[in-house]
Amino acid sequence: MFSIDPNALNRARFVVHPLKPINLSTQFDNTEVDSPGDTTHLSDADTDSNHSHVQSEDDEPDVWTVKTNEGIAKNLTFSWDVPVKGPPTRSAFLSEQSARVFVAARFHVQPRLISDVDVIRRYISPTDLLSSLKTTLLGGTSRLFGWDERDAKLIVRVDKNGYGRTILVLGELSEETTSSLIEPFLEIGTLICRIESTISDLRKPSTAAASRALAYALQSIIALVQSELSTRLPETLTMASLSRLSTSFSDLRFELGALAELCLCPLGESPPFVELPSTQAPLLDHLFSALDHFISHSAPYRTSAMIAYLLVTSSRDFNDSLAVTIGLVLRLSRPVKSLISGHKIDLPLFFSERSKLVLGSAARALDILRRADPEHPLCQIDWAWNAPGWGWFDKDLHAVDTQTREHIFNVRKALNKLYASADAATSTVEPEEDKTSSPTSEEGVPPPSESSETTTSMPHPPKPARVYKPELAAFSIFDQPPGSHIAEPVKDTSAAQFISNGPRVLPLSAPTLPLLVDATLLALPLAHSRLISSALFRVFTGRLAFKTHLKVLRGFLLGDEPIFWSRLRGALFEEAGISSASAAVGRGIRAGVRTRLGIADTTRDNMADERAEREGRAREWGVGLAVGLSDREGAGTWPPGGAELGLRLRNVIDDALEAGWGAIPTSSSDDEKPEMARERDPERVVLKETSWRLGFLLRDLEEESPEGRARWLNPNAIEALDFLCLDYKPPDPIDAIITLDIRHKMHRVFAFLLRLLRVETVTRILFNTTFQEEGLNNPPILLIARFKIQSFISSLIGYVKDMAIGSHWDSFLAKIDEIEQEDESKSESNLPRDLKKERMASDIFAVHSHLSNTMDQILEACLLRARQRGVGNALKECMEAVLVLGKLVGDRCRQHSGSSPDEIQEKHFILNVTKVLQRFDRLYNALVSPQESPLA
What we know:
This protein is 52% helix and 4% strand. By secondary structure, it is mostly helical. Helix 5 runs antiparallel to helix 6 (209-232).
C-alpha cells in the first residue's frame, strides 16, 4: 500500500500562534507568475536547512508571516489533502474579464453591419453624466440633454455642428445599456417640465381662482420633489453605483407620473395635450375623481396625500364662495364669485344629490328671505365662521360635529329671540352678545379684537399708508404690492407637512370619499342651509300669510267659496227656464232685462236670424248661458266680450270678497304704514290686496282645430266657456311657491268647474221646465233621462268637490300645519331627527313641489291629465249629453208655446231623447267599466 513519513509530515506542519494575527506582507497584485504550470517545490537543501534550524515544535516559524521570495509566486493556500498546488490562474469566462476586454469581444462578435452616418456617438464618463443630471432631474437642460418642443420631452442634445441624432455611450457600457440607465432620469425631467408647463397655463390671468390655486399647490409639490431629487443625488458617481442610482428614484417617478396624469400630460401622450377644465366646479370634479381613483387602487400614501393636498388647496376659493352663498359669511376681505347662476347653483358633481338639493334650495331661500325680510338675523349677522374645510381623520370629524352643534345652537338662539320679541312693530331683534354665540358688532361683523381667534385661510390685506376720501377708497388697492390681494394658498412648509402627515386611510366613520365630504366639508353648510329654509318657511307662514293665499286659491279657483260660485252662476248662466231664453240674444244687459220682463222684439229677432244665416252660424243661444253676456254688434256673437261682461265679472269678485271674506277693496286712503299693518294683521292685508290680485282673463285660444272650427266658438258646445280664465297674481316672495306652472294647473281645474257649473245649471233648468212649465205633457222617457242625468251630475259634483279636490288639498294643508307645529316646538339644541320631514320643513321649494304634486293629483282625479284623454273624453261627452237634452227640451218648449203639440214632433222628440239616453248610458258604462271603450 503506502507508508507515511512522520518526518515529512512534521516538516509540512505549521503552527499558528494564537495571539498573532494572520498577516501577509506580500499582496497578490505583486505576485509574479512565471507560468500557469509552474509549481513551487521545497528543495532538499532548503528542507535540510530548515530542519537544522528547527529545535522544537514550539519554536517553529509561522509560515503565514514568512515573506516569500520576490519575483516568485507562491501558493499560500494550504490544505491537508493537497499540501501544495500551483499559483492562481486568471478566469476563462469572458464576463469576468476586465471591462475593456468585454467591450472589445462584444464589438468583435457583434460588429455594426450598417454604417449610421447621421448618428453621432458621444462617449461620456460618470462624472459628465452626474454634472448633467444635477439640472436635468430638476427639469432643466444641460450639456448632455435638451428639450424637444415637438414631442415635449428631454432628449440627448445634438452638437451645434452635428446633424442627425446623438447616442451616448457611458464608459465601457453598450449603447442600449447606457440608454436604459439614462432613460429613467430623462423621464423624471420630462415629467417635471410638462407639469411646469401646465402650471404656467394655470397661472394665466383669465383662469379661475381654483386654477390659480391649483398652480400654486402644484408648484409647492414640484419644489418638494425637486428638493428630494437633489438630496438623493450623490456627490460622486461610479459605474458600480449607477445602477443603484437609476432605481433609487422610482418612487418619485411614480409620484410625478401621477401628477402628470392628473394634469392630462402623461408620458404616453404627445402634444397637443388635453386642457384641464377652466371653470371651478369641473376642475374640482377632476381632482376629486383622481383622488378617488388613487385611493381605490391602493396607491402609495404619498401619492394620495399629494392629490388630496391639491384638492384641499384648490377648493378654498369655492369653499369661500359657498359660505357667502348660503349666508355663513356676509363679506370677505376679497371679492368672491357667487355660485348662483340664474335659477341654478354651480356645485361640483361629486356632491351627493341630496346635498346639492339642500344647498341649492338654501341659496335660493336666502335670496327670497332677503327680499321678504331684509332685517332678518340670517340676513344681517355674520356668524364669524370661516369657510368649510376638509377633514381626514377621526378627530377632524369629531371637531366638525362639535362645531356644527355649537353653530346650530347659536343660530337657534338668535331666532328664538326674534320670535319671542314682545314688540310686534319691530321686524327683527338683534341678538345680544354672548359667550356661547358668535360675537358680532352692530353691523353683524366680528369685532377686530377677536379676529385673531377666527381661523381663516386668507390673511387680511395690508392697510394702505395713504388715506383716501370715502368716495375714492377703492383706489387704495393700487397702493398694495402686486398680488397682495390674493390669499396665499399655503405656507412654505405646509405642503411637506400635509404630505408627511397626510391620510394613510380614511376614517372608519367615513370609509369612502363621498361620505367623507358629507361628514366634514358639508356638515355645517348643510345644517345652516336647513336653518335658512326653516326660517324662510316661518316668515312665509307668519309675516307673509302664505296660508291665506292658499285659502284664496282654494275658494275662488278650486270651487270652495259658495258665495263666489253662486254669484258667478248668476252672472254667466240662467236657470229660471228656457221657454224664452232666446227671445233677446246678444244685446247686452238690456237684452237680459227685456227677457226677464217678457218683452220681445220680433223685428230684431228676424234681423238676427237673417244675419246668422248669412254668416253660417247657429241662431240659437247656448243652452244654460245667460242672455246679454255680450254688448258686441251682431246678435248671437260668441265669444262674448266688452265692458259690460268685464264689469259683471268684477262685481262678482268684489261682492264675494265683501260678503264672504269681509274684505274691502284697497284704495289710496288705506293705512299709511302698510308694513306695520302687515305685521299686526297680515291676513287682513292679503285679503285687501285680493281684489286687484284676482281677476278674470280672456284666453287667446286657437280658432281652428284638426276637426275644423274650434269647438269653443260654438255656444252650444261644452267647451264654450274655456276662453274664460280666473287668474291670481301672488306677491313677490309668494310667487316662488305659487308659480305660473301651478296657476296654469289651477286654470285647467277652474275651466272644468265652469263646465260642471253650466251642466248643473242645465239640470236645474230641466227640473224647472219639466215640473213647472204648464201645458206640457212630459213623456216618461224624458223623466227617466232627467233623473239619471241629474243623479250622475250631482254625484260627479260631490265627488269633485269633496274627493278629487277637497281630500288632496286638505291633506296638503294638514301637512303644512304639522310642519309648522313641529318647527315651533323644536328646541334650540335639537338636531333634525326625521330627515324626510326636515326636508319638507326646511325647504320652502319642497312645499312648492308638494303643491305641484297635489295639483297633479287633483287633475288626475278629475280625469284631466294627458294620459287620461280617452276616459276624459267620455266624461266630457256625458256632460255634453246634458246640454243636448236641455236643447231638445228648450226646442220643444218653444214649439209648444207658439202652437199646439204635433204628434209627429212628439215622436221625433221622444226618439231623440231615447238616443241621448242610450248614448249617455254607453258613456256612463264606459266610465265605470274599463273593459268597454269610452268612444263606442
